[in-house]
Protein 1
Amino acid sequence: MKEPLVFVGACDWAGIVRGKGFPEADSAIRLKKGVGVTHTNIMMSCFGPIYTTSFGTAGDLIIRPDPKVRIEVPFEDGTAERFYLGDIVNTDGSDWEYCPRTFLARGLKALAKAGLRLVASFEQEFVLTGVEDRPGATYALDALRRQGAFGETLMAALRTAGFTPDSFLPEYGPRQYEATVAAEEGVRSADAAVVMREMARAVAWRTGQRAIFAPMLAPDGIGNGTHIHMSLWDGDRPVTHDPAAPYGISARAAPFFAGVLAHLPAICAFTAPSVASYYRLTPNRWAPVYANLGIQDRGAALRVAPLFPTSPEPAADQFNVEFRVADASSCPYLALGAIVWAGVDGLARKLALPPVGAEAPLLPRSLAEALAALEADELAASWWSAEAKAAYITFKRAEIAALGDVAPSDVCARYAAVY
Ligand code: GLU
Ligand code: MG
């Protein structure tokens, strides 16, 4: 005998979906009431323990399920994934500002005040265990074949979960694959990223495998990136592109991306938030090293993606800029939220893009450097209260301290066990 359980979770500061389950029979009431959590939950480290907390043992909050992110995916073995993603709110239903999903939603509201909305798509790389690694497998049809039913099951799971799978491919690294979900509006694009990670884990788990999203499995290995493609829209009109403008980026959208470049060191604290993230952001990995904008350059932090003139889609609809400094140790809501807040600042201050080919500053070289940049970025204080910002920095510094002087290969192993 079995009684279906439904889980309500939020993707937290550590980028992990945590929450609570309840009998499906109670869904109607739980949709209203949510599930209870404490304030300190947000400070659970990626490794498990609470190393530091601003809240102690006091207080109650609710994860309020979003009925639009209801996942019900049955698998052939008779089991199913049943969960909701939601917001962490106060018990009276009001916003709790430490909630990552709310952090993004507030940023998007500020962007809407500037008359713009954001459409984004997350492209995520991971390593699939259990696949035979053979020489010459990079991007090979044979590597696609050797992952068996994983990819097709993942595509079906994503579609059943209410999202649109865009692609699945064998990547460059050993046993490395990549899946992309089609672009979605604002918060839903980050929901899609969270669901894609969970569905990949869910499908892998059912065959005794793991989909490992950690940024690097070995310090000198191939990185797993999370690339975020973005375009700005004014109502139904795409407004990112102007073929005559530098980089092809319109005067309307340019300040947004200039803001992202200006705040990039601080943004790294959210998009590349693990110690291992910085083994990936090193030369010759097709990952960024500079806070730069490049046209069709996969080594750039921001890459103007190519246009395909033979596509039936108009150029203005296709045009997007890809943010490449993220990995899957990030919480998609915090990562995209930080990008949006930085873009909003760029728009407010009418920042200009650097001239094409200009020299760019280096990205932070470590999580400690990124956190110092976040601490020093005065503007980042307006994204969040001083308390929330300080708590996040303390939370991440505790993660660095917990690793102590562990060797880089063990650091990779620690994160690979988690993500
Ligand atoms: N694996 C690279 C990264 O870490 C990206 C390779 C690609 O361009 O797809 O970001
Ligand atoms: Mg890739």
Note: The two ends are 32 Å apart (CA to CA).
Protein 2
Amino acid sequence: MPPSTLVRSEHDVLVIGGGVAGLTLALHVAGTRRVTLVRPASDDQGASRWAQGGIAAVLSPQDDFDAHVADTLVAGDGLCDERAVRFTVEQGPSAIEWLLSLGVPFTRDTSPTANYPYHLTREGGHGARRIIHAEDATGRAVLDTLKHHAQTHPDITIRDDLVAIGLLADAQQRCRGARCLDSRGQLQELVAGDTVLATGGASGIYRHTTSPHPASGEGMMMAAELGAELMNLEFQQFHPTCLYDPDGPPFLISEAVRGEGGRLLSTDGRRFMLELDERAELAPRDIVARAIDAEMQRTGSPHVWLDVTHLGDEAIRHHFPTIHAHCLKRGLDITRQPIPVVPAAHYSCGGVATDLDGGSSVPHLYAIGEVACTGLHGANRMASNSLLECLVYARSCAAKLATQRGPTTPPTASTQPGAGVVEVRHVQQWRTALRDIMSRYVAIVRRDAGLDTASHELSELSREVQAAFESAAPNTALASLWHAVRLARLTVLAARQRRESRGLHFNPDCPPHTETGLAPRPSRLHLDDLFA
Ligand code: SIN
């Protein structure tokens, strides 16, 4: 594309990503500042939609903040930032009230003994019933409600024709907006006072994921290109129970299924969690996913079973209508048969290091939701704390943005894009190679030798992708891959540097953190560390 055709436009607050975090932020900022929301149609299928279980918050009179804080710290295996945990937990009830005021159709509790008007379910790691939900499709219900309000708000402009591929900076290295591609492949520069990344995590660097359109660390790398610090990348969460359905689309079997009494069985019929942890199926996710992985290795089976048949037909249809209907469509009646399940990449606990207002280490660049690392999750996220985090930090970030105006300096010129052509099939092959390397060597169990192999193979891959990226005309698939490959390399580096097993980072070559005597330490990396 010749430089003369570059389209440049001016914006006040630019939000990149339209899941629960991005939409919540847009709705809170609108009214004080104008918002441009870059929200490609694929955001409707992103991680927010698949957060089936619900939103954790202290809502029942029998629950309290200290208990939610304590459960989160235990699940995070000693690496949470307690200040971020307490902040998040204490903001939970007002965030839920806001969603109720918008009309999110949370499931009511109609039983005569109910002590809160909405049904609260349980999930792994939670010592109390504290998860408010809309049947078994909470993410979808919240997303649809927020989208409806954003679409009709006069201060919000939604750009569904653009995909962001990089950020803009001024001469002082302050963020000044984003470089996007439109549907015809034309570059557009959206110059903005403040820029908020709400682009999701990095599960897409793995072969099997719980969402059909996972992000691949694009937002993390766009921030890193501007010098932002990335934190805790080695803690990639695998959800224990994705439907094992080799011919079907990825489909999550919510943790609420275990919360309501679902039992995990090996293919030879053992309820293995009973032997491993006193919390059994409701142990934190890292523990359950690892146990399933070990059972699959032991039996040689590609899945284990999740059995709910004992809950009865009526309870299953009442609590899990979406899961029941999906499985039935795939030929499985979960009221009569156990569900084959397998762990799959689900959530990135690491990301752009941020403060309690979503601020990154780059001035005027913010990150909220899964792309961010606030310190809430530590080494392992507790179930249903993710939508809570999206809401709480979107609201605190919006409050901060309402008090300021971004700079007006011009962005520095972007590098001249190439004009070459790269074949789609090559991009697909490279992406498959990336996912294979990560799934093989950097998954639920990782070892030093495997991490070294991954590091070597990713450097080779990176060289090929970089050459294509620098010579080809801008294209969204290649830009996403280029971000994903570097994010994968940083993830391997973080994993190799951690000399302990902790939470989601389980390396049999390293002792459990309880045996090292070392103080808990988050990992912090910059893009430059790849070249150190
Ligand atoms: C689930 O319903 O199990 C997913 C929600 C979450 O990841 O917290």
Note: The longest strand covers residues 187-197.
